[in-house]
Design goal:
With 257 residues, the protein is of the alpha/beta class. It has two domains: 150 residues, 3-Layer(aba) Sandwich (Rossmann fold); 92 residues, no CATH class. The protein is built from twelve helices and five strands. Strands 2-1-3-4-5 form a five-stranded parallel beta sheet, sandwiched between helices. Helix 3 links the parallel strand 3 and strand 4. Helix 11 packs antiparallel against helix 12. The longest helix has 13 residues. It is globular. The mean pLDDT is 95. It binds iron/sulfur cluster (SF4) (2 copies).
């Protein structure tokens, strides 16, 4: 029997699921190797009950109805992998974690009483243990393929823990931070995108989130030395991965008067 795969969506834009579909050259092989039991973005098959050998979960926990979905997915899955910024740290929608969500509701929706939402956008790992978290908004498709392959053959995914700076140097880009004074979060950001933004002479805004042991304090000091006010430095850390603990802590330190 083929291993059963589920792809589950919570609060998200579907970009991570589309990354899986973007594996055009490998998609047929994936379909042959796996029984795709539940993947509503791609298939009319509907089997949310499981059990599953591998579940990829996209999106943050933002509504009360998503809490039992996550708990059920954990209970029914041998391996549960959180893919993308929303599932890993709450995503861009976690910006509301610093605000009054009731106020946002009344500003955005004509009938806020119809909306059921949690006060905070939470990562999946805050509710249940996850076997792996793949960074990115969205993740790199080759890294996603490596994660699927690794869990199929029963090993840890081989995703190198390194910064965007290393990819940037390997690609031969001029450092936008040092050479042009453009603020760049590459030194504290997990690699995977191939240093896309510095390659276009733009600073990295960390859509792959903090790398392991990121020295956010040192980079933030340097950004201030280059003339960014502390509040602006805080804002730079408080974006797609703003609720990730290292970035959250750094933005809190910088916004203090
Ligand atoms: S441009 Fe950014 S990512 Fe590239 S080396 Fe400089 S700081 Fe690092
Ligand atoms: S923001 Fe950073 S991590 Fe995201 S694509 Fe640009 S360089 Fe890569």
């Amino acid at each position: 029997m083929k291993p059963r795969l589920a792809v589950i969506k919570l609060a998200s834009c579907d970009g991570c699921q589309v990354t899986l579909l973007d594996l055009e050259d490998e998609l047929l092989a994936i379909g042959e190797a796996l029984d795709v039991a539940h993947f509503t973005e791609a298939s009319s098959r509907f089997d949310p009950d499981g059990p599953f050998d591998l579940t990829l979960i996209e999106g943050s926990v933002s509504q009360p109805r998503q809490i039992p979905i996550v708990r059920h997915a954990r209970a029914m899955s041998k391996r549960l992998v959180a893919i993308g910024a929303c599932a890993n740290t709450g995503g861009l929608q976690a910006l509301r974690n610093w605000a009054n969500h009731e106020e946002y509701l009344s500003l955005v929706y004509a009938r806020p009483e119809y909306i059921e939402t949690l006060a905070e956008s939470k990562p999946v790992s805050e509710l249940v243990p996850v076997d792996f978290e793949l960074n990115g908004c969205p993740p790199d498709r080759h890294q996603l393929l490596e994660v699927i392959t690794a869990f199929l053959v029963g090993r840890r995914p081989n995703i190198r823990s390194e910064s965007v700076c290393l990819e940037c140097k390997r690609a031969g880009h001029v450092c936008v931070h040092v050479a042009y004074g453009i603020p760049c979060l590459g030194p504290v950001t997990q690699a995977g995108c191939g240093a896309l933004c510095p390659g276009k002479r733009r600073g990295c805004y960390s859509c792959f989130g903090p790398r392991e042991n990121a020295n956010t304090g040192s980079l933030a000091d340097d950004l201030e030395r280059k003339g960014l006010p502390p509040a602006e430095v805080a804002r730079r850390f408080r974006l797609i991965y703003g609720w990730a603990p290292p970035f959250r802590a750094e933005s809190a330190r910088r916004e203090k008067p």
